[in-house]
Amino acid sequence: MRRVVPLFVLFVTATLLFGQDGALDPHAGCAAPSDAVVDPAILERPTTIRAGVGNVTQKITARTPAAQTFYDQGLAYLHSYVWIEAARSFHQALREDPDCAMAWMGLARAEQGLNRDTESRAAIEKAKSLAPKVTESERRHIELRAQQIDAQLAPPEKSGEKHDAYKRAIETAIAADPKDAELWVLRGNAEEPGPWGRGQAGGIGAIAFYEAALARYPGHLGAHHYLVHAFENVGRHADAAEHGKIYAAAAPNVAHAQHMYGHVLPRLGKWKEALVQFEKADAIEQNYAREEKLRPGDDWHHVHNLTLLGYTYLRLGRMEDAEKTFRRGFQTPIRFRQYGWQHATLAEYLLLRGRPQEALAAARALAGRTPGARAAGAAVEGEILLALGRRDEAEAAAKRARAAYEDARQAAGYDSRWIERFVAPFVRQLEAELAPTEKTAAETLLKLADDLSTNPRFDAWGEGLFRLERIAEQAKRSGHDALARDIQGRMRRIDPDYAPGSTAVPISSMAAAGSTR
């Protein structure tokens, strides 16, 4: 496939997504198989100590003060999911001290964040080989990381057992050294449903562990970050915003720190303040890619931030900015298997805005991408075809979407949770809209609407607000006005200040007949 042109070129060209004849480039945003992961050479580039990335210190055995400093920087980056820079920092520590066991341990975590499981295993094995040379506290951390990695990569039938054993091992380590804040943070991460926990999916059970970490290490960067996620996950958005503000201030040059503060502000009605944070994150990521000469898509977080930035523009009525942002996201390759579904956002937007032919082209362009992207794209394609009155084709698209979803789930390994969380709703929505009876369709769609309206996470309800807008529009097209009103009621639960119908443009009779624009 053709390589994608640099992002800055895409941003300034008038034909951002469409060619001179208005046709969609089916290869836009598509990484060739050899480009499916981050270039390993990037991870070993020398680096320096950076300002504004947050400070966290864990005393380790190191030959030089510089090795300790670079380890601490790598740890701070780990706590913000900045996998590339974490890896570079740990490699820099290893240049100072090739036998720094904890730097190898940190590198194992960074490599796994980058979906490089083989390299992750090799790094943790190196750390284990050096463990006899370090302190008992460091050996505990190395053993725990090795145990976590083993549990993550275990077959599904063994994962639960190994996850439980991992949690017990952390508790044993805490009993031996209750002052170690990193252990409390690890235990909070482990409270998530699987051994893959890294702070994003915690709930009530995790909060106490992060607060315990803060009691032992006031200002701990990771504890504040993970409390944003945990409090958001349980619907305590004011508490999440409090920790988000601290986290953003502690790491002003980390995009995810700015993003997470923005993540929780909309639920408090602070859409404009959220926009500022998402724009800050976007600027940081663009500068980072330019300065470090990254390929588009090497930074896993960029498309995710663009997605939420686009929805924030949409909610604020800034349609032109929303479309530009969704196009930028579409054009940026997604090199991580679990995030490809985000490329369907452009097709969703175009359908919402009453432009089904362009939406159809955008949805079909996902056919050559990751299984998750194919599933989401086929589901949105079916939604568009149904809007155009082409039910037989919509049903065929639904079958393709379901098959791609199952393929994606199987291929994602321990990342299958992301496929289930974010891709399944696309498939379920289309299947519900195609249900054989009006009653079955209404029941299923209202259940989906209830799930979205009660979900406290912006990743779910932020997009879900406009997903429900599309469902309501389809209900109206089908003559189901009562269902449309019920769906709009769920939209008001999500955002009481949003006026249903304010972003949707009815599909014209010309478009509904299947003609091109």
Which short descriptors sum up this protein?
517 residues; Serine Threonine Protein Phosphatase 5, Tetratricopeptide repeat; 26 helices
Description:
This protein is mainly α. The protein folds into three domains: 86 residues, no CATH class; 246 residues, Serine Threonine Protein Phosphatase 5, Tetratricopeptide repeat (Alpha Horseshoe); 176 residues. The protein is built from 26 helices and no strands. The protein is elongated and about 75 Å long.
What topology emerges from the helices and strands here?
Elements: H1 7-12, H2 40-43, H3 65-78, H4 83-96, H5 101-113, H6 117-130, H7 136-152, H8 156-176, H9 181-190, H10 204-216, H11 221-233, H12 237-250, H13 255-264, H14 271-292, H15 301-315, H16 319-331, H17 345-352, H18 356-364, H19 371-387, H20 391-411, H21 416-422, H22 424-433, H23 438-454, H24 458-477, H25 481-494, H26 509-512
Helix-strand string: HHHHHHHHHHHHHHHHHHHHHHHHHH
Determine Rg (CA atoms, Å).
23 Å
Report the major sheet: none
Low-confidence stretches: 1-23, 31-35, 513-517
> What CATH architecture of the largest domain would you give?
Alpha Horseshoe
Short recap of the structure:
With 517 residues, this protein is mostly helical.
